[in-house]
Prior knowledge:
The protein is α+β, with helices and mostly antiparallel strands and about 270 residues long. It is built from 4 helices and 16 strands. It is globular and about 60 Å long.
Amino acid sequence: MSDSHCVYLLATNEQLIGTASGVLTFSESDLVNTPLIASYPLGLLENADYRVAIVAEGELPASVDPEALCGLRTMLAAVEDESTYTLLSSAAQIVTWHESFKYCPRCAAPLEAHQNELAKVCGSCFHRQYPRISPCIIVLVRKGDQCLLAHASKFAPGRYSALAGFIEAGESAENAVVREVKEEVGIRIKNLTYCFSQSWPFPHSFMLGYMAEYDSGEITPDGEEILDAGWFSASDLPVLPPKFTIARRLIDRFLIDIGESLPEDSALFFTAE
């Protein structure tokens, strides 16, 4: 540590440190007795220089109550603005990357945190390793005043969302949208429109959000990733994704497009218009 103006987020055991009220932050002076394994820059936010630091298990500052700590999704649920979401998303992905990439992929020597860049460097062959980002698409399909929502096998009971999937090597985002919809629910779509993007820290996805129109075919869930899917109107929406998700932002965009009022817990801090 060398910058007394830094604001630190901490992580241990691949988890950011925070409570249901949000992520915990620390000053330089808060950490004088806390040994840091590594520290990475997160950038400027509200004129403060943020960093995420890795600490060993059992080495958290004495001010932290272990019983009050929670997971990343709970912390994100308390977020009320896009800047804070970006901060947590970046920190969580850097923590995952730090734990997942410990050795050089070229010569297998240990990697160390770079002093000036958001990177790791090999002390043997000097190869630099940067945080991993996995591009994905997510699409909300419209059919008149209805939208297609699906229940995936990994979802909580009753929750439905837009369709999503990873972009394959050599594939465009638009082709990935068409392929994923056909594979997961068996229909064809048309008139794709790009809307917005979101960094998604589970574990390191970059989501490209699209709207599309129904073209042809009958909904047929694949039975593996998607267990159920159907057309929903504004008056019969199921349990929706949390407000911090790009899926919820797409649904809000759909509701605006058909002239409906947004729910009280909508993703308003991500401008849907």
